[in-house]
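Reviewers of the previous submission asked for a worked example of the structure-prediction workflow described in the proposal, so we include one complete record here. The input consisted solely of the amino acid sequence. No template or homolog information was supplied to the procedure at any stage.
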Amino acid sequence: MTWTHQLAAHLGIESGILATCMVLLGNILLAPLYGHLKHPVACHIMSIAVTSLTYSILFGFAGFVQLTALALVCYAIMATVRCAYTSPILVGTVSMAVLCLHHIYNQWIMNKTAYIDATVPLMMLVMRQITLAWQIHDGTLPDHQGTQSQSNR
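From that input alone, the workflow returned the following structure tokens.
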């Protein structure tokens, strides 16, 4: 039994809830450090590192691998499929399929009440991946096919 499980048992709460509270408190304490970073690359690196660490602590290494694998597959689709609107639709289909399977597995098959589900972070990744895929698609259009606001940029 880990120290977090022992502390949670001593406090009379679920260990997942205690881990979530500890991670969120830790992230709040890191916020001033993030505010002092001046270079955008340093901000991105810290953001990725803190997010990866947070996700790994809350959902385990297997959840982190699942999230990373989905992101890499979507990036590979965006990099290799250069056909008009096929890339964003393919990214959306693949990422929504993974999200649906994950949600069905965790809600119907696992069916644990005291389990912290990773559906919300996965849902955020799906939204960001689909948005990025459509932005890349819009960026590859010739100038005359863009809207007026896109042409002004």
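The CA atoms of residues 73 and 91 lie 9 Å apart. We consider this example representative of the routine output the project will generate in years two and three.
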